[in-house]
């Protein structure tokens, strides 16, 4: 059996807030040194983008791959490259609003969809040219 890493501690101002009239609040060990987050940014799963941006401010603005997405729009795989362009624009907007994690995630998705579009478009163009050339040779 593994022991729990949570305990109860008396916190000032918490005497009547927990509904039981007790002056104790259950606290996890990992949350003792963390600054309080605003309720709108509170997350149970991943760290918020504000925590990530304060840890590594020297990384700069995340890439949105807009040029790659625009280039992929010249390939004949339009549903995929249009979605890549939309993800790229969403990544740029998220970066401008300060959501570094969201901008990075959307940028990676835009890059992936752009690369898939370029690869599939190149395959389609090569197949079309090869079929056109072989069709003209036999006639």
Automatic annotation (TrEMBL):
Keyword terms, alphabetized: Membrane, Transmembrane, Transmembrane helix
Organism of provenance: Semnornis frantzii
Cellular component GO terms held in the UniProt record: membrane
Record-stated family: Belongs to the CD225/Dispanin family.
Lineage: Eukaryota, Metazoa, Chordata, Craniata, Vertebrata
Transmembrane segment boundaries: 65-89, 110-131
Identification of the protein by name: TUSC5 protein
InterPro entries for this protein: CD225/Dispanin, CD225/Dispanin_fam
Location within or outside the cell: Membrane
Pfam families (alphabetical): CD225
